[in-house]
Amino acid sequence: xxxxxxxxxxxxxxxxxxxxxxxIDHLLSRFTxxxxxxxxxxxxxxxxxxxxxxMTVISTDMLVEGIHFDLxxxxxxxxxxxxxxxxxxxxxxxxxxxxQITVSIALSNRFSVEAVDELYAGIRTACEAYGVDLVGGDxxxxxxxxxxxxxxxxxxxxxxxxxxxxxxxxDLICITGDVGAAYLGLQIxxxxxxxxxxxxxxxxxxxxxxxxxxxxxxxxxxxxIIELFAKAALVPTAMIDISDGVASDLMHIxxxxxxxxxxxxxxxxxxxxxxxMALKFRIDPTTCALNGGEDYELLFTIRPEDVDKVKYLPxxxxxxxxxxxxxxxxxxxxxxxxxxxxxxGWRHFGVQPQSDTxxxx
Length: 361
Ligand code: ADP
Ligand code: MG
Fold this sequence. Notes:
Layout lengths: L14 H14 L9 E3 L7 E2 L5 E10 L11 H17 L4 E11 L5 H18 L2 E9 L5 E10 L15 E5 L4 H18 L11 H8 L5 H9 L6 E4 L4 H12 L1 E6 L7 H9 L4 H7 L6 E5 L4 H5 L4 E9 L4 E4 L5 E3 L21
Parallel strand pairs: 4-5, 9-12
Antiparallel strand pairs: 1-2, 3-6, 4-6, 7-10, 7-11, 8-10, 9-11, 12-13
């Protein structure tokens, strides 16, 4: 590939110029481990973490270009940030505190050093926002797209860890924040992409939809909620983060706990912008809330005697009740009817891949 000469073009450094080790050194030079538990960060054959007498909680995720993200509308910095956040969300969903992450990437030669820098700038911002150290990773070439795999390591005292399996009949179902917005953000981005592909002269105007698009491109994990639990001395009976949609994620809790649930339609927290945009897309807002994904809110259950503890905590909504397994997992609609919930979730396998983004970045 020839060197960029046009001064109006941003700088583009071919990764081959640095080589694998040069790239790793370059990326890691901007990361300094800060936590006392990080005994050895990047640079050796493995990282060393001292968790003293705490339990270690580990989670890993892989994101594949064209399946999980589309670089046509996802800025690399946001992608880096989101990749970390969605991983930390799994650790918070165990009522644990994430401390360290490893980041592995596979890159095709479409990616310049500057593009990888953008990705890592987002990763660094997330590390700083959530107080985690980057302690290692791996770097590989790939034939075509970008693959990112992140593993996070967290800590918790054993009696504070919350599993999906702990919900009991009579427990209350709680949801944080609001749900369904990230799904609509994705629908807006996909619509604008289609319009742009039809007519590249039209620049999309996404300003009006900042909230919904922000929920898709720059989600946050609910670190704050875990901290509130600790302050209120509240340990939920079961918990999951909402990545596939309330319906699927509630069903995971019910299946693993051996219980059923009744969810109140009126108890689903839905942002007013979600409601308005759902109507524009002619989708029922409740369907977005139940089956949209990627909200990264927390869905958890509590003993009824703990209701006063959550009532006064901000941004937590009581949305239903755990019932015997024989009663199934149902939605109690505003019209007073009971509907069986179905797990939809994201079905990446068998779906048409998103656009084949082949331009250099
Ligand atoms: P090894 O050959 O032992 O796998 P590497 O040369 O791949 O070692 O990695 C050297 C160091 O840099 C290790 O500490 C590794 O964890 C870290 N590292 C490699 N790639 C990345 C990356 N993409 N992001 C963060 N750390 C990385
Ligand atoms: Mg390696």
